[in-house]
Each structure stands twice: as structure tokens, then as C-alpha cells.
Design goal:
14-stranded parallel sheet; mainly beta; elongated
């Protein structure tokens, strides 16, 4: 479909388009106002559905299976809707969008792909911006559940159950001002959530049994984490990396981390109203300085509930069951 405006492609019954390994099953390029609905795409090489250099394309109720590349591959396009789509199998990403802006991805199901579930300009100098991912379900993917590189992107009410990499992440390349809201991540190989850009938010998310940390804050910092529930991370609960200053973590609960509950390696952060229980190492370990800790609680840690080896931090109304005698007293 090249150069068409206002084209409608709607399948009636079981309409199958098979690429036969000789090309992508369906390609939309240089188009405006195209509507694609109720199609089954198979045998695409490299991809199932390709959209390039197009605008105002709507894709609904299509099933994409297999392929040596991505299920849906989009480049240099704007104002798209991808809704009620299923992508199963394939060596690449379920949905990949590069240098693409102003997109709604809603109620998609992506399962058993070799790459990321949803990839938004991941690893590229170009960004994909103003993209909303709502109510996505991502199952057993080889890469990250959702990997974003851009600004003003939002992921809400989505689930990642099983991923070889992180559950949901914002890259440091140019990721900033993006949001994770009311999502769930379970049984991923890496971190539950990684905010590696600048001024990113994670609010009211749940993380269960990630292979890495529950939440990792990096990049240029200035991140906000509120009301995140982290259960049995196989590493730390929350890590604030060196250089990620001016972060705020509030009302977050960490239970049963294999390692330390909170690791604070940077400066000028605020921790308020958080709770850590049964950490495998320290409850809170601070190596940064000029941090403010207020109304936090840590108990039942295997080593100490608080270990402050830097000093210069401020403590108010916290409850720590045990304090490292070799560190600084709160």
C-alpha cells in the first residue's frame, strides 16, 4: 500500500495475508488516513506489518504471527492508533516504532517474541515521542517488556509477565519526562522498572520477583517514585545510582529483597514514608550525601536496617530497628 490516502482494508471472515518468506506480509508507506482491520498476517520476512513515512494510520484487530523480524515495524510516522492487536512469535520485537510520534497503543497482546515486547526507538539516536501505551499485555518475551527512548511517553495499566531483560525501562539516550502509572511487572530477568533518563515518574506500580532490582533510578536523575509495591526482588529493592541526584521516592514498600532494600549512591535525594521489611542485607544503605530521609521504616534486615557510610544526610522521624555502628548515626 504505497502512496494511498483514505484507503480502508477490512477483512471479512478469516482473511489471511501470507508473506511467504519473500517480504513483509503487509506494507503501508507514504500514506495518509489508512484503516487496517481484521486481518491475519503470517510469513513476513523481515516483518509482519510495516508502516513507513505515513500519518493517521489506524490498525485494529489484526493477528500477526512469526517472522524473522518484528511483528509490527514502524518508521518515521505520526498520529497512529494500534488497538486490539495480537503478536505471537517472531525473532524481533512485538511492536517496534522508530522516529515515530503521537501514537496510541491500546489493548495489545504480545507473546513469545525474541526481542522486546514494545520497543520505542530503543538504542537509536532518534527518539519516539508522545506515545501512550494503555492496557498492554506482554508475555514471555526475550528482551525487555517495554523499552522507551523519547520524551512525554506514558505506559499505564499494562502488564509484563516474563521477560529476559527489564520489565519496563526508559533509556538514557534521550528519555525524559515519561511516566509509568499503575502497571504490573512479574518474573522478569532484569530490573522491574528502570528510569535512566531525566525527570521520569513511576507511580502506583507493582513489581513481583524481578531478577534484578525492583526499581533502578539512573541517568540524570530528578525522578519521582510514589506508591510502588516491590515484592521479593532477587537483588535490591530500589537503587538510586551515582549521578542520579535529586530523586524523590515516597510511600514505597519493599518486602523480602535478596539484597539491600534501598541503595542510595547519589546526593540530594528525598526518601519519605517508605517501608522496608526482611531485606537480605541492609534495609537502607546510603553512600551518597545531602539526602533527606523522613518517616521511613526498616525492620527485620539480615545485616542492619540502616547503614550510612557517607554522612551528611538528614534524618527525621524514621524507625530503624538496627543501625550500623561503623557508620554515621541518624
Amino acid at each position: 500500500v504505497d502512496g494511498f490516502d483514505g484507503l480502508v482494508l477490512v477483512g471479512k471472515g478469516n482473511v489471511l495475508i501470507d508473506g511467504g518468506g519473500a517480504g513483509s506480509a503487509l506494507t503501508v508507506s507514504n500514506a495518509f488516513g489508512v484503516f487496517v482491520d481484521k486481518l491475519d498476517l503470517r510469513g513476513g520476512d523481515p516483518h509482519g506489518l510495516v508502516i513507513t513515512d505515513s500519518s493517521e494510520v489506524v490498525v485494529e484487530k489484526i493477528d500477526v504471527e512469526g517472522g524473522v523480524g518484528d511483528g509490527i515495524h514502524v518508521e518515521r510516522s505520526t498520529y497512529l492508533i494500534v488497538e486490539k492487536v495480537t503478536v505471537t512469535g517472531g525473532a524481533g520485537a512485538g511492536i517496534r516504532m522508530d522516529d515515530t510520534d503521537f501514537v496510541l497503543i491500546e489493548k495489545v497482546r504480545i507473546e513469545a517474541v525474541g526481542g522486546d515486547g514494545i520497543s520505542l526507538s530503543a538504542g537509536l539516536p532518534e527518539t519516539s515521542d508522545d506515545i501512550w501505551v494503555l492496557k498492554a499485555l506482554i508475555l514471555d518475551v526475550g528482551g525487555d517488556g517495554i523499552d522507551m527512548n523519547g520524551i512525554f511517553n506514558v505506559v499505564a495499566k499494562s502488564k509484563v509477565f516474563g521477560a529476559g531483560g527489564d520489565g519496563m525501562r526508559i533509556e538514557s539516550t534521550a528519555g525524559s519526562d515519561s511516566f509509568f502509572l499503575a502497571n504490573m511487572v512479574k518474573d522478569v530477568g532484569g530490573d522491574g522498572f528502570e528510569l535512566a533518563g531525566e525527570d521520569d515518574w513511576a507511580i502506583k506500580n507493582k513489581v513481583l520477583s524481578p531478577g534484578g532490582a525492583g526499581v533502578r533510578l539512573g541517568g540524570a536523575g530528578d525522578h519521582l517514585v510514589v506508591a510502588v509495591k516491590i515484592t521479593k526482588p532477587q537483588a535490591e529493592g530500589v537503587v538510586i545510582e551515582t549521578g542520579a541526584d535529586d530523586c524523590s521516592v515516597q510511600a514505597t514498600k519493599i518486602t523480602g529483597s535478596v539484597l539491600t532494600g534501598f541503595v542510595v549512591d547519589s546526593d540530594f535525594n528525598y526518601l519519605g514514608g517508605n517501608k522496608v521489611s526482611k531485606a537480605g542485607a541492609h534495609g537502607v544503605h546510603a553512600t551518597g550525601t545531602s539526602n533527606m530521609l523522613e518517616k521511613n521504616k526498616a525492620s527485620g534486615s539480615e545485616v542492619f536496617d540502616l547503614s550510612d557510610t557517607a554522612g551528611g544526610n538528614t534524618y527525621e522521624k524514621n524507625k530503624f530497628g538496627s543501625v550500623d555502628p561503623g557508620g554515621f548515626e541518624p
